[in-house]
Amino acid sequence: MGEACLFFNIPNDGVIINWQRKFKAQGSAGLQHKPKGRPKSMTYKRAKKKSTKPLTREEELLLENESLRMQVDYLKKLQALIQAEEAKQNKKHKPYMN
Question: 11 to each of 44, 49, 94, how far by Cα in Å?
Answer without folding.
Answer: 40, 52, 71
